[in-house]
Amino acid sequence: MKLATSLNVLHDITPHISQAVARLAAAGFDGLDFNGIDVVRDWLAGDAERHVATLAEAAQQHGLPFVQAHGPMFGSVDEELRDSPRLTPPCLAWCARLGAPWMVMHPLTVSPHASRGENLAHNVAYFRQWLPDMERLDVGMAIENMSDAWTAHRRYGAVPEDLIELCEALDHPLFGLCWDTGHAHLQKLDQRLAIASLGARLKVLHVQDNDGAQDNHLLPFCGSVRWDDVLAGLREAGYAGAFTFETHNSVRPLPDDLRDDALRLAVGIGRHLCARFDALIPNGDRTASRDGQVVVQASGLP
After folding, report:
1. Longest dimension (CA), the chain
2. Closest Cα to residue 249, out of 19, 11, 51?
3. CA–CA separation, 133 vs 231, rounded Å?
4. Among residues 236, 238, 263, which one has the least CA distance to residue 251?
5. Do 72 and 84 contact (CB within 8 A), yes or no?
6. Cα separation, 226 vs 53, whole angstroms
7. Residue from 32, 60, 29 nearest 263 by CA
8. Euclidean distance between CA atoms 216 and 249, whole angstroms
9. Domains annotated on the chain, with CATH
10. pLDDT 10s per residue in the chain (302 long)?
């Protein structure tokens, strides 16, 4: 499994994007996640083509392919609905230029009072509007699981059932799912069962840890996510994508002369988890869970 990281781990030096890519390559990563969300407004206000060309050249020079990307996702539904017609098409085009096959997007919650059916219909219409661009560019959208741990109302996409029904309703190979391990932990989900239920719909990951109360975006083992459950769920789902960190808060707050050490630690942790994933028994012994779903039993897992 390729080990990748979001570029936002060094977001504050993205004006020197080639340097950021070089440092991530030197640390030992295999791939990159392009953070369109962080740069889209600045790039559109300046010379976007030059920035994209510089980033593509640096990635090629250092042998780091773009395995996925972040699309224009912001803090509120109103903001996303207002800005997405202007910001989403260029982000898709940049993904195509960089060779990123999947761009992650958040599902939207229409209102605190909307029914699940209303949210489903709204999201189907919202995501289908981008399908002509996606087909032309051959870039897919991976819809991310959310959390409503901080809200008094349901947030659409916080449980795997929402994501599955949305993916089935969209019914196109360029729509898939992204699993954020930190969001799922905040939601108190059984990640082994939840991830397994996504099956082949799961295309990319946001791998991060937290304390179960805040969306900390830490390296694995710095919070309380049960990583054996995550790995077993990925094996049961048949996941074949990259193991991609979204762990900027374990690196970015550090003095710059300590960041390369932190990046090397991140690679070591990632390699450890990838090795544990590889050690799982493919299509191994299976046992029915308490709710009738099937999970894989593998060496070294409880």
Report:
1. 56
2. 11
3. 34
4. 263
5. yes
6. 40
7. 29
8. 7
9. 3-296 (3.20.20.150)
10. 999 999 999 988 656 889 999 999 999 999 999 999 999 999 999 999 999 999 999 999 999 999 999 999 877 778 888 888 899 999 999 999 999 999 999 999 988 889 999 999 999 999 999 999 999 999 999 999 999 988 888 999 999 999 999 999 999 999 999 999 999 999 999 999 999 999 999 999 999 999 999 999 999 999 999 999 999 999 999 999 999 999 999 999 999 999 999 999 999 999 999 999 999 976 544 433 323 333 344 434 44
Structure tokens at 291: 């709710």
Helix H or strand E segment including 244:
strand 243-245
Q: How far are the Cα atoms of 107, 144, 175, 176 from residue 118, in angstroms, in the given order?
A: 13, 19, 20, 21
Closest-CA residue to 108 (of 76, 84, 136): 76
Length of the chain equals 302
Residue 63, number of CB atoms within 10 A of its CB: 9
Q: Which residues contact 9 (CB under 8 A, 6 or more apart)?
A: 24, 245, 247, 248, 251, 252, 263, 266
